[in-house]
Specification:
This protein has one domain. Helices cover 0% and strands 73% of the residues. The chain contains no helices and 8 strands. A 4-stranded antiparallel beta sheet has the order 1-2-3-4, with no helix packed on it. The protein has a 4-stranded antiparallel beta sheet with strand order 5-6-7-8, with no helix packed on it. 16% of the residues are buried.
Length: 108
């Protein structure tokens, strides 16, 4: 796996993995979110793999937990360069093999 233009990295201490937001994968522009295992980086999974021709900047990512209900969400925010579109994406990452997009917002 070869990613460039890494925009943000966070560490999830609960699951002991890294989550990376990148703007390029295999020399293609896009919106790529990848989860890596801390001990074995060859174990990775794409949470989002959107290919487009847009550069992003001003990124931030957060993991929100509700231990009472067993919910865990990944919140991703970024700005699309040149067209100034601001994006917020929320994924339910409570279940290992299923990531459900629960919210997506774009505004100018």
């Amino acid at each position: 796996m070869h990613t460039t233009s890494i925009k943000n990295v966070i560490y999830d201490s609960e699951e002991e993995n890294f989550i990376i937001l990148a703007n390029r994968y295999e020399d293609r522009l896009g919106f790529f979110v990848v989860k890596f295992d801390e001990r074995d980086p060859s174990k990775f999974k794409f949470l989002i793999k959107w290919k487009n021709k847009l550069e992003i900047a001003d990124t931030s990512m957060y993991v929100l937990r509700n231990t009472k209900n067993g919910l865990k969400e990944l919140i991703i925010c970024c700005k699309t360069i040149y067209i100034n579109v601001y994006n917020v994406v929320a994924l339910d990452i409570s279940v290992e093999d299923e990531q459900l997009m629960i919210f997506r917002h774009e505004s100018f």
